[in-house]
Design brief:
This protein has about 350 residues and is an alpha/beta fold. The chain is built from 12 helices and 8 strands. The strands form 2 sheets. The protein has a 6-stranded mixed sheet with strand order 1-8-7-4-5-6. Helix 5 runs parallel beside helix 7, helix 5 runs antiparallel to helix 8 and helix 7 packs antiparallel against helix 8.
């Protein structure tokens, strides 16, 4: 029995690891150590759980059920996680919440006679956390953006548990609360979480004077553009760099906004490139010339300057300065222009 366990748990993942190494000649992405080790560890984990279930089914039905629930809960996490990359994080959160909610309730309904409800709850939580919790613990800061997604999965498990143990009228409240939470997270909550992490506020609205009021940029002809050129206008700046793929995906949208506001004397729109060490002189202007965008672009300083003056730490970041030179918004593009539109209406511009 021990020999079989060693073969399934260690030799199978080793074989997979070596196979990945062979295929990496054709698929360069597979040369990434994290991906190779990750796939091997997951297969090792699944193999160990599968073998344990086989043994336990023959010897102890309660432990068999416990590990079966753990395995199924882990499977839910693994199957739904690609939604974060292929659809969106908030879609993944809501879908996985619903699946965990129903899965937990169903397990309790069907298996509570053979395993205590608390143990079923514990098994669901272990399966959900067995991969995510170590990642969020070891790389806490770099995984903060998906922390809300993980917590919402746990919330789904707990709500399914409370639905099972609650009375008739409380059940209705739990279902309604779950629907409201899912709706809020999908349409507003995740955006607020992302704004807080990336831009420092839940709404993107800020209110402070720029530390260096006499900031300046340069255009493609080398002319200096200073803050004095924007006095009396709402200034919208889209900060970007040449290594930001999201920035390039949003440029067509920025071009549309420019077309909408270019005849409005109360608004000025600029894309400001923040230089990376690898960038050559004029790289940003060459890129814009090739792509044919209509909105004007300016050359800013280094990343340290953007962070110290405007508080920009991620890209793209869109900021809005009011006619008095006070920064009143820092966030994403759509929310920035919604804010500008509301400000123009409020001031009758």
């Amino acid at each position: 029995m021990k020999v079989k366990f060693i073969i399934v748990t260690f030799l199978l993942p080793l074989l997979v690891y070596l196979t990945i190494g062979w295929y990496s000649k054709q698929y360069p992405l597979l040369t990434l150590p994290v991906l190779r080790y990750g796939i091997s560890i997951v297969i090792s984990l699944c193999s160990a759980i599968g073998f344990s279930l086989y043994v336990l089914k023959r010897k102890n039905i309660r432990w068999y059920l416990f590990f079966l629930i753990v395995a199924l809960s882990l499977l839910i996490e693994m199957v739904t996680s690609p939604l974060r990359g292929y659809v969106s994080t908030h879609s993944c959160s809501v879908v996985t919440f619903a699946i965990y909610f129903l899965f937990t309730f169903f397990m309790l309904k069907k298996r509570a006679s053979k395993l205590k409800p608390q143990w079923i709850l514990f098994a669901c939580l272990i399966g959900c956390s067995i991969i995510r919790l170590p990642l969020h613990t070891i790389q806490f800061k770099s995984t903060l953006i998906t922390l809300l997604d993980y917590l919402f999965h746990l919330f789904g498990i707990f709500m399914g548990y409370f639905l099972y143990i609650s009375g008739k009228y409380i059940k209705s409240g739990i279902v309604v609360t779950s629907l409201l939470c899912c709706t809020f997270l999908y349409f507003k909550g995740y955006d607020m979480w992302r704004n807080k992490l990336h831009f420092g506020t839940f709404t993107g609205i800020v209110h402070y004077k720029v530390e260096k009021p006499e900031f300046q940029f340069s255009d493609k002809d080398g002319n200096t553009i200073t803050s004095k050129d924007f006095v009396g206008k709402y200034l919208v700046i889209d900060f970007w760099n040449t290594g930001c793929s999201v920035c390039f995906r949003e440029f067509p949208k920025f071009d549309e906004y420019y077309g909408r506001y270019k005849t409005n004397d109360n608004v000025a729109l600029y894309a400001v490139n923040i230089k990376l060490p690898r960038d050559k002189e004029g790289t940003a202007f060459e890129i814009f010339s090739e792509r044919g965008y209509l909105f004007p672009t300016l050359q800013g300083g280094l990343q340290e300057d953007a962070k110290s003056i405007f508080g920009v730490s991620v890209y793209p970041t869109v900021i809005v300065l009011n006619p008095q030179g006070i920064m009143v918004f820092r966030g994403d593009m759509d929310n920035a222009f919604s804010f500008v539109e509301s400000e123009l209406k409020r001031n009758n511009f």
